[in-house]
Amino acid sequence: MKFTSSTCLLFSLPLLSAFQNVNSFQAIQTSTPQTLTELSASVPAAGGGIPMVPAGDRLLFDPAQEGMLGGTPSLDDRLTSGLDYEHGYLKATLAVKDAQAWLEDLGVPGPFAKASQPVTATVLGRGKLIADEAPGDIQHVVIKLPEGFHYVEGQSLSVIPPGIDSKTAKPHKPRLYSIASTRYGDVLDGSTVSLCVRRAEYFDPATGLVDPSKKGVCSNFLCDAQPGTTLQVAGPVGKTMLLPEDPTTDIIMVATGTGIAPFRSFLHRLFVEETIARHQFQARAWLVLGVPVTGGLLYPQEFAAMQQTPSAGSLEVTYAISREMQNKQGGKLYVQDVLAERADDLMDRLDNGAHIYFCGLKGMMPGILEALEQVAINKGLDWGTKLKEYKANKQWHVEVY
To answer: What is the pTM of this model?
Structure first.
């Protein structure tokens, strides 16, 4: 079964203001022949624990009707629990549905829309991913795409923020974001995309306060967007970060901050969704994620649940929490320190054909390359030659910004 964009809005947007009271809306819902309890019985585990719409609100988008899963906990639990939600992957096996198979033969989609001619999408919901004590603000944003706009894991999408650039007197340039969901989206109906967005802010060193004149236009737009907000998108693009075609190939994923986005899509595909990709994967996946503090970990509950879900493949997750952990020299622990400390294992995997992926701020790469070069030297290898070998074999994937 396929869904069209015409099925997205359960009510017209002008009616939203009339139903903001959760209790009154639930009363309306329970008065219908299909009760909330009945709806919840088939609600998918959608949105990665992020509220898709305000708690109790089914006006904008109802995964019970739009999604195609079953056997997972109630929608209300997901909406009200937020980051504390206990993921249903631990307690339920998702049934294979048509919507989890009909996008298996996409290949690598080219752009559905160019940045010069973007298309309109709709924000379904967003939620903060990190604790208040963690620095900054990172949001998980779920977006409804136009019918026919498809992508695969490892690709990116452009968002064109509204308004005019005051410096150029022209529309703002597109901002590229790595996609954080699988081709089926967090609702698994094949029509949504999720982004992991850090709010870009500039703190004036003299005052210590945020300078609003220098804030990131697109990131702030996305981090403040409300359900029903429309936006212009383009893409998808990208072939650099695609998963290996061979399901017996090990993958190593190294991320800092929001660089986790493509790897979340990888791991949902390999360890969560009931698709042939998951059942065929028989290799090892190793994720190394670097963040400053524990409260800044991204999607930790999801990864923990994946590790406890029976699978032919195996998942290892290693965190480098720089302000709380130390490397062997007594300094802060960064992702490159983790790779250096696991040097023998890392090199053995690469020499046996593993693919390694890097995603995050471009400042992460010099330290990583230096660490790997030292590993190679210690093993009596020429790092330049090894790196060329990995690139020639298409084992080396980098997406930094």
So the answer is: 0.76
